[in-house]
Design brief:
Elements (H helix, E strand, L loop, with lengths): L6 E4 L5 E4 L6 E4 L2 E3 L11 E3 L2 E4 L5 H10 L41 H10 L7 H8 L12 H11 L27 E2 L35 H14 L10 E2 L3 E3 L2
Parallel strand pairs: 7-8
Antiparallel strand pairs: 1-2, 3-6, 4-5, 6-9
Length: 256
């Protein structure tokens, strides 16, 4: 397995730091089941088949290399149907991510753009169940959701500004060998808005529809429920063309 690379010094006429993209290595997340905190009325376990998942979120440098081959998704060329006006708004130009770190996660990327990136690599976005299943681990435990320390870590992250400036790999490696599922940026999933019945977020009238109201978290005294509430509500408020400075992505792949 290739080790993640960050920078390499090349002796030239003048010394230069040459950014090298974090290698997009993947790890196997083995099949199993979990009970989602939201989205299932019967609270029965959901089966998740084995799949591969990127070790790290996609970085600015990774995304730059993608744009060089997919100019239609560059900052100036992307169609508004595929990305809102905030798409890559911290980049200086189509092929310049400005002052952002090369190995910080790329953000302000729409679902359409994230999907296209993964497809260009022969991959796909993880489903919501795959993402939640892989993300419920801490460094040692397959399902750490009942641990106070795990949930407090997530809640502390929610209160920490500008974590998107940190480099990938800056949070703990979880049970599966995946970094940054919590603590860096929110991440797109393939079915991000399919959680609640119709999947159309604020218009849902089912049992979980009130989760999209700001006051819905008042009664979520359990740290586990509150941490999940914030994540699910964020997803449900999104549309595919939306972008956000704290929203990035990583890719998954089926086992062939």
């Amino acid at each position: 397995m290739l080790k993640a690379l960050t920078y390499i010094l090349i002796p030239l006429a003048s010394l230069l730091f040459i950014p090298i993209a974090i290698s997009q290595e993947m790890v196997l997340v083995k099949k199993g089941s979990y009970v989602p905190l939201y989205g299932t009325a019967d609270k029965k376990p959901v089966e998740v088949q084995s799949f591969y998942l990127d070790v790290f979120p996609v970085t600015n440098q990774n995304y730059l290399e993608f744009l060089k081959q997919n100019n239609a998704f560059s900052k100036s060329q992307v169609k508004r149907i595929f990305a809102d006006k905030s798409y890559l708004n911290y980049w200086k130009s189509d092929f310049d991510y400005g002052d952002a770190k090369p190995n910080s996660p790329v953000t302000n990327v729409s679902w359409y753009a994230a999907k296209k990136y993964c497809e260009s690599k022969g991959k796909r976005l993880a489903t919501m169940d795959e993402w939640e299943y892989a993300a419920m681990s801490d460094a040692k435990t397959f399902d750490a959701r009942t641990k106070k320390s795990y949930n407090q870590y997530i809640l502390n992250w929610y209160e920490t500004p500008r974590t998107y400036n940190n480099e990938v790999g800056s949070t703990f490696k979880n049970y599966w060998g995946v970094y940054d599922m919590h603590g860096l940026v929110w991440e797109w999933t393939s079915d991000f808005n399919s959680i609640f019945l119709s999947g159309e977020s604020r218009k849902d009238k089912g049992d979980d529809g009130n989760l999209f109201c700001g006051g819905a978290s008042v009664n979520a005294s359990d740290l586990m429920n509150y941490a999940a509430f914030m994540r699910y509500a964020f997803r449900g408020s999104m549309k595919a063309a939306y972008t956000g400075r704290n929203l990035g992505f990583r890719c998954a792949r089926d086992i062939k």
